[in-house]
Amino acid sequence: VIIGAGFDSFALRREDLCKRMLSVFELDHPVSQNAKQNRLKQLRYILPEKHAFVGIDFEKEGLSEALAKSSYSRKQPAFFSWLGTVHYLTPQAVLNTLNDIVACACPGSELVLDYAGPEGIAGTSQERWAIKLKRFTDRRGEPILSMFTPDQFQKIISQAGFNLIENLSPSEQASRYFKLPDGTTLPMPSSY
């Protein structure tokens, strides 16, 4: 289940998995999904049969309500991917979505997500990058609406019923995923 899928390409990149064993549910605003579907038609890409677009406005509708309109099964463990969109939602919509995932996920399901941390947590050079990112998203009409400290997010996750396994700081993420051949790392915004 790809939450806030946008132009995610997993179903195209991993057609081998999607044809044989995985069902992919892309949840996003209908306007975003229409743009993606139109682009796929222009490029003549065909998504696997086990792929479904599930329209949702996270500020107005629950994730479990949206998934109920699809072939998603609450009886099978699922992997929920929620990357790059938590910060565009209000804190209440984030909490509602977490609670909905718990409500509709079979035991054994997993969730991976990132979230924005308040400026200042990541350090001076990354703080400048976070401020630039915030200005950019504001100009695009997609302002950053929620930020959490690691302690706040730990509490929210626990209250929703999740067991937090790992919570990487921006510097830990950069070291693990964005190390350049010369040993330096790309700067990361205040995202966890």
Written overview of the protein:
This protein is α/β, with parallel strands linked by helices and 192 residues long. Helix content is 41%, strand content 10%. It contains eight helices and five strands; from the N terminus they run E-H-H-E-H-E-H-E-H-E-H-H-H. The chain has helices spanning 10-13, 15-20, 30-43, 63-67, 91-104, 124-139, 150-160, 170-177; strands at residues 2-3, 24-28, 51-55, 79-82, 110-113. A three-stranded parallel sheet has the order 1-2-3. Strands 4-5 form a two-stranded parallel sheet. The longest helix has 16 residues, at 124-139. It is globular. The two termini are 20 Å apart. The mean pLDDT is 86.
In brief:
Helices cover 41% and strands 10% of the residues. With 192 residues, the chain is of the alpha/beta class.
Radius of gyration: 17 Å
**Major sheet: order of its strands?**
1-2-3
Spans with pLDDT under 50 lasting ≥5 residues? none
What's the number of helices? 8
H-E string = EHHEHEHEHEHHH
- Quote the distance from N terminus to C terminus: 20 Å
Q: Helix/strand/pairing class, anyone? A: alpha/beta
Give descriptors for this structure.
single chain; 192 residues; alpha/beta; three-stranded parallel β-sheet; two-stranded parallel ribbon; 8 helices; 5 strands; 41% helix
Write the layout of secondary structure elements.
Layout: E1 2-3, H1 10-13, H2 15-20, E2 24-28, H3 30-43, E3 51-55, H4 63-67, E4 79-82, H5 91-104, E5 110-113, H6 124-139, H7 150-160, H8 170-177
Parallel strand pairs: 1-2, 2-3, 4-5
